[in-house]
Design brief:
3 helices, about 25% strand, elongated
Length: about 170
């Protein structure tokens, strides 16, 4: 490899996944406990003659189950950021498994962290008039850390291109 060529191989890779605080095993335990509590309360209401209330206990558990299932489905989404060779790529996988990919030339790539007044932010990669928001499902501190990591990786990648670094 000559000093004018970009470094080959994988230079940086990060897989971004949405955070879920309740693991699947915890979800099963939670649903079991809610089902048992609802069953117990339903039996109690039937015993005092208020049998129409039982259906509402079942609806509550079903609605909660549906909400959690939708949340876990959205967790299948991911983004893969990769700096390899002379390409910076962002691959986005939707909750349905559909893939989309964007390519940027890393020498001209800018990492823009737009801070907002409400303590939130937005992370954008931009080059040659094109821009892409990345990590929108991450929390604000995670986006700040990701922006720093990307800037560090790009600086190291660009430094590897510098012929002056080969003279040492």
């Amino acid at each position: 490899m000559t000093s004018a060529e970009p470094p080959g191989g994988l230079f940086f890779e990060r897989v971004l996944l949405p955070h879920r605080s309740l693991p699947p095993r915890g979800f099963q335990v939670l649903m079991l406990l809610l089902g048992l509590v609802s069953l117990g309360m339903g039996i109690g209401f039937v015993a005092i003659g208020a049998w129409p209330i039982c259906g509402f206990f079942g609806l509550d558990v079903a609605a909660l189950y549906l909400a959690f299932r939708l949340s876990y489905r959205s967790a299948r989404r991911r983004e893969v950021l990769r700096l390899a060779g002379d390409d910076f790529t962002v691959e986005r996988v939707s909750i349905y498994g559909e893939r989309a990919m964007w390519r940027f030339q890393p020498f001209w790539l800018r990492i823009v962290l737009e801070e907002r007044a409400d303590e939130s932010n937005r992370l954008v990669v931009a080059s040659h008039g094109r821009s892409l928001v990345i990590g929108d499902f991450l929390g604000a501190p995670m986006r700040r850390e990701l922006a720093d990591s990307l800037r560090t990786a790009l600086t190291a990648w660009r430094a590897a291109l510098n012929p002056a670094n080969d003279a040492r």
